[in-house]
Amino acid sequence: MIRNWLRTSRVLPVITPGEVDTTLHLVRTLAAAGMPALEITLRAESALDCIRAIRSELPELRLAAGTVLTPEQLEQALAAGAELLLSPGATPALLRAAREAGAPLVPGVATASEVMAGLEQGFDCFKLFPAATAGGMALLKSLAGPFPAVGFCPTGGLDADNFRAFLALPNVLCCGGSWMVDRALIEAERWDEIAYLASQAMRES
């Protein structure tokens, strides 16, 4: 389920939510531009309310929760309506909670040892974070040798200029990024520009 979810999403807008109404407007814009999936990070107090509102208004949208750091957040995000969970890293407690709940978690990794630890716990899809500073495309190419069956969603440092090169790698299922949901664009209510960037990302993915 996780691998197919990521592979068919291709580009995942990573949204740090603000007010619920503004976030809903943003999500409507992305959906109308052809984005099939998005990630709401749990970095704001409004995050769970935003997930509930999006799930209620746009039930067909594939909705992920990001920055899931604890078992409690995992449970809260699932209860709010998230269908996929992404974390910037992994702890034994978080991995155990995901396994026990049968939750679709994409743990974060930045090294081969972290990939091995995740595989040992039954995970084979990972978020490479922070992708650019951890080694970027060179690291992903290196990891493909010892881990040919592992899929990655690189996030952190990806933009409109480099995401296509990441997606071209055989072990990359999906790319996460915030260039099409830049905070300055949202605050300026430049919805047309956001829609253009989103539709461009989908066309070029």
How would you characterize this protein structure?
The protein has 205 residues and is α/β, with parallel strands linked by helices. It has eleven helices and nine strands. Strands 5-4-3-2-1-9 form a six-stranded parallel β-sheet, sandwiched between helices. The radius of gyration is 16 Å and the shape is globular. The model has no long low-confidence stretch (mean pLDDT 98).
What are the salient characteristics of this protein?
TIM Barrel, single chain, 205 residues, EC 4.1.2.14, globular, 2-dehydro-3-deoxy-phosphogluconate aldolase, three-stranded parallel beta sheet, alpha/beta
In this structure, how is the largest beta sheet organized?
6 strands, parallel
| Approximate strand percentage | 15-25%
| Structure class | alpha/beta
CATH topology heading: TIM Barrel
- The top-level CATH class is Alpha Beta
Record the strand order, biggest sheet. 5-4-3-2-1-9
Order of helices and strands: HEHEHEHEHEEHEHHEHEHH
Rounded mean pLDDT score: 98
The CATH superfamily turns out to be Aldolase class I
SSE topology sketch:
Layout: H1 2-9, E1 11-15, H2 20-32, E2 37-41, H3 47-57, E3 62-66, H4 71-80, E4 84-86, H5 92-101, E5 105-106, E6 108-109, H6 112-120, E7 125-128, H7 131-134, H8 136-144, E8 151-154, H9 163-167, E9 175-177, H10 183-187, H11 191-203
Helix pairs in contact: 2-3, 2-11
